[in-house]
Amino acid sequence: MLSFYIRARIPQYLHSSSSGSALLFSKPGLYRLPSRNMSPSAPVRMIQTAACLVIGDEVLNGKIVDTNSPFFAKYCFSLGLDLKRVEVIPDDEADIIEAVRRMSEKYDFVVTSGGIGPTHDDVTYPSIAKAFNVPLEIHDETRQRMRKLWKSKRNEATFDWDTPSNRLTAKLRMATLPTGAGCRAYFPSDELWVPIAIVNDNVHILPGIPLLFQQMLTGLEKELVPRIEASSRNIFRLMISTPQPESQMADYLTLLQEKVQERGVKVGSYPRWGKPRNTVTLVGRDREYIEGLVEEVSKQLEGVRVSVEGEDDSESDEAVEGV
């Protein structure tokens, strides 16, 4: 399992703001992005849409609960990216090839999670290489960083990196990456040997271990921010807490959505089953316009604006009908 091969203690990075923000600067088209991991003259596509592909039999059979896609959803919201799709698929070459080709073609920024360890069922690297017809090769910098940062388990003897062995072959599977046109390895932290392998310019291969997934995505932000259109900045979420059940407010919310749709605002209704109040949200990029709707929406819903769901609940409140 990949977690055995990480030397540094991994902190947890979370985005909890209800109104994501980022320092954005760009113009439509291609942006030439300087980076320590790529040529300064390499053209980079601007990004607006995102997708997440979770790969793992253990997720589909219920052995583990996926926490990476919820983190990624918050991550995208904080950067002003539109997360359009999340899929969970098995550790199967054909499934990976089909999904990653489709997502790469349809979305600007694609992240995969899982399947890059040293065992037979870790098939993400070779499957994605095959999907885009690029070779797999041992990545020299990854191998060097692995050797430098490797931390043996307490019950593991000192490892011999210079003598061929089955264990060495297994370890080097994790440094064998897709290479060639449209491929590069990005190292988001000097404390990790694991890179983000980028394929077809927009597919970013990450480990499934949640703390690694989170740290590596957070380290990628400085590369992503200049590639996000300036018009996408400051995506904003407004929440109204209301005692009304959904059936009571359904007609008004339909009319409200029709009214705000041309301004790029989405209205959402979320029942809090067994709780005294439900939540209505307005999400968009025109904060001033959304703020101007607070008085009307609060009055119609007999509600109040909140920053956190449940902050206006009290023990004396009776539960409302969720729907």
From TrEMBL:
GO biological process terms on file: flavin-containing compound metabolic process
GO MF annotation terms: FAD diphosphatase activity
Cross-referenced Pfam families: FLAD1_M, MoCF_biosynth
SMART domains associated with the record: MoCF_biosynth (SM00852)
Cited CDD domains: cinA
Domain (MoaB/Mog) ranges: 51-227
Source superkingdom: Eukaryota
The name this protein goes by in its record: MoaB/Mog domain-containing protein
Organism this protein belongs to: Orbilia oligospora
Taxonomic path: Eukaryota, Fungi, Dikarya, Ascomycota, Pezizomycotina
